[in-house]
Please model this.
Amino acid sequence: MRTEMMQRAPTFQTHVRAHEAVINNEAWYGDGEPSLGETFTAAKTAERHSVIIETLLRGAKRAAKAEDTNPANDYNDLADKLAACRAKARCGSLACAKCARAFQKAKVAAQQTIIAALQKDRSEKNLVFISVVPQGMTYKPGEFSRIDIVKANRWLKDALKPVGMKRAMLGSADLGWESRRGGNYLQLHWHLALWTSNPDQLEQKLKAIFLRAIKYERPVDVTAAHDHGFLAYMNKVIKLPDLLRRNRRNLPELLLALDQTQPLDLLVLSKLRLSAQNGGLVMRRITTKKRKSKRKTKQKTS
Ligand SMILES: [Zn+2]
Model:
């Protein structure tokens, strides 16, 4: 059954068990906890799912008219794959409104749990929600197939070394559609959560790394997280309702790019590892071998 389901999809090599845990558990497709808000109920997602398929078919017709059979075939194939997504035969595609939402819910649930657990040892620190927008990493229509989240996440982890990657951190890559000042492009950026004893200093360090992008006024934003409300936003990947309203023309190409990305590859984890557990995801602290006075040791991180 799995080979049939995965026919069109690229071969995913990471997080296979975690991926299957999510798509094989219908609870993530329903309206149980964690809630993603009234805009993202199962019913409203089903409506968007239909609109997405319609949009792909329309995109295929348009491409065929332009005598570009390549995307036309790809859009038709993806439409078929999404239309076939149902219980016990989930497509697992990030282009699928239903599956993308299931992964979002499973990620939020796992993150709520690990954040609560880590908070116990970090009562003197602040949990902060960070957005970083790197220069470049923008994609115009026609370039979306170049988006490589795995590579981008590796770049990010490297870029973040000056602020210390020895601390527990979690986050996700995110694709925002920018249509300001005549520009029309996707901006790849990240939302992260971590603990710090000095949010201002951290923000200064981050600003030194992520220099102001010309078209983006706020390359770095650090805000205190008073609850877990930011988690749904952090794991949204795209603003689907907004794209369906404002940008259906470019959506088929974006959906193809999303289909080439494994939902769990969007995650950015530092000192945490992801695995499958009880039909869901679990994140665990990676413990270092040498830790004699584990709680007393002052970390040099800010
Ligand atoms: Zn699906």
